[in-house]
Design a protein that fits this description.
about 210 residues, alpha/beta, Cobalt-precorrin-4 Transmethylase, domain 1, 6 helices
Length: about 210
């Protein structure tokens, strides 16, 4: 009972606080975009590593001021907190992961892409292995015939959690650099070829 009440309080309070703090971090950091000036006037998949997820709204909003995007988020409790936090930025979510409700999430994501939504995904989420690309992003892109843009988000100074994904929280009053690739097309590629291309693209700006 106590656990249920504490979770309800967390869901009531933490998402709005989290969204506020994300906005504060964005406002107090200089944002630099090493990025394509524009993406094609079609929907796309935006991918970043799970550990860099916190500031992803500003990568997407750099291109589209009016969000038309769904993010795939774990349907565990922490995923619910993330989903509610992202809703303050106008992002909707698809709940599921490679380990839980995977088929349902995959079908919903493909359907959303075919309906014209953009899609946000962490290829190594929700539980890793860190910086390894799971099959889902490849299947989604090929089945829906959409391209992928790869994002790295690197703050000049940050806190790093001792979690499986080494989650990064920017410190205020620094610079956050967004590396955003041109759209890549993996149509017709074999699974391992596409996986290698995505992984190498995300590793390009490793520190």
């Amino acid at each position: 009972m106590l656990k249920k009440i504490s979770r309800q309080l967390a869901l009531l309070l933490l998402p709005s606080i989290g969204a506020f703090l994300i906005r504060v971090l964005a406002m107090t950091n200089k944002k630099v975009f090493v990025a394509a000036k524009e993406l094609e006037n079609k929907n796309f998949i935006m991918a970043c590593w799970h550990g860099e997820l916190l500031m992803i709204p500003y990568a997407y909003l750099h291109y589209k001021k009016n969000p038309h995007v769904k993010l795939i988020i774990s349907d565990h409790f922490d995923g619910t907190l993330i989903a509610k936090t992202l809703s303050y930025f106008g992002f909707s979510t698809i709940r599921g992961s490679s380990r839980r409700n995977a088929a349902r999430a995959l079908l919903q994501a493909i359907k959303a892409l075919k309906e014209g939504f953009d899609l946000g995904i962490t290829p190594d989420g929700p539980k890793g292995p860190r910086h390894e690309v799971a099959d889902g992003i490849i299947v989604m892109a090929q089945k829906a015939d959409v391209k992928i843009t790869l994002v790295r988000i690197q703050p000049s100074s940050y806190w790093q959690l001792n979690s499986w994904d080494k989650f990064v929280i920017p410190k205020p009053f620094g610079t956050i650099t967004y590396y955003i690739s041109d759209l890549i097309d993996i149509e017709g590629m074999e699974l391992e070829e596409a996986r290698s291309l995505i992984k190498k693209g995300l590793q390009k700006y490793e520190k």
